[in-house]
Amino acid sequence: METGRPIGGWLIYFAIRTIISFVYGIFVLFVNFDNVANFNYDDFSSDIANIRYVQAFYPFTAVVILLLIESYLAYLFFTKNKDFPKAYIYLNITDLVICLSLEYVIALSGEVVYFSRTIAAFIWLIIWGTYLVKSQRVKETFINTKRKKYVKITEEEYELIKQKLTNQI
Q1: What does the pLDDT average to over 76-92?
Q2: Cβ atoms within 10 A of the Cβ of 96, count?
Q3: How confident is the model at residue 166 (pLDDT cuts 50, 70, 90)?
Q4: With 97 labelled, which of 47, 54, 66, 152 sits at a CA distance of 20 to 30 A?
Q5: Three-state SS string across 30-45, please?
Q6: pLDDT digits (tens, 9 = 90+) for 92-103
Q7: Is the dihedral of CA 44, 48, 50, 54 positive or negative?
């Protein structure tokens, strides 16, 4: 497996952010689990119960999905996988959609929502997505791949290998 350049430069900041995001995700997961575990099904009429149910369970589900995304991105980042830059962009678009829907769920309760988390995630995606696509350091760092490398052979070499294999049987 090729090693490429070490993680350095702005990627150090990216590594620190990845670790902090994962730890923060675990913390938020437990906070939201408490809301789900203490949900009271008997206190509301059916319409209010449906809204409260969505407000309790959807954030928990979203946090689980976001934590899985962060885990996968951390794996790709620290293994310096070649697919990391594209995966980062695609999965952060998913993060944007989830953030937007979470803020919509908050708006269901009647709270004023400024969509600041969605706007911040969008700006973060534009800045770091551009960096990951354009940076030469990123291209030299993320070079590992799980794909098999195939070697081209001529027709004569193929026939020779085929003949050797049939002679062994």
Answers
A1: 92
A2: 17
A3: confident
A4: 47
A5: HHHHHHHHCCCCCCCC
A6: 999 899 989 888
A7: negative
For residue 63, give Cα distances in angstroms to 34, 111, 112.
Answer: 13, 20, 21
As a whole-number percent, the residues of the chain with pLDDT over 70 amount to 88
Distance CA 142, CA 2 (A): 10
Report how far residue 59's alpha carbon sits from residue 93's, in angstroms, rounded to the nearest whole number: 18
Q: Retrieve residue 139's tokens.
A: 């291209």
For residue 16, CA distances in Å to 53, 76, 89 come to 35, 15, 18
pTM, two decimal places: 0.74
| HEC assignment per residue over the chain | CCCCCCCCCHHHHHHHHHHHHHHHHHHHHHHHHHHHHCCCCCCCCHHHHHHHHHHHHHHHHHHHHHHHHHHHHHHHHHCCECCHHHHHHHHHHHHHHHHHHHHHHHHHCCCCCCCHHHHHHHHHHHHHHHHHHHCHHHHHHCCECCCCCCCCCCHHHHHHHHHHHHHHC
Q: Which two tokens stand for residue 26?
A: 């675990």
pLDDT one-digit tens code per residue, 34-73 = 777 776 666 666 666 677 777 778 888 888 999 999 999 9
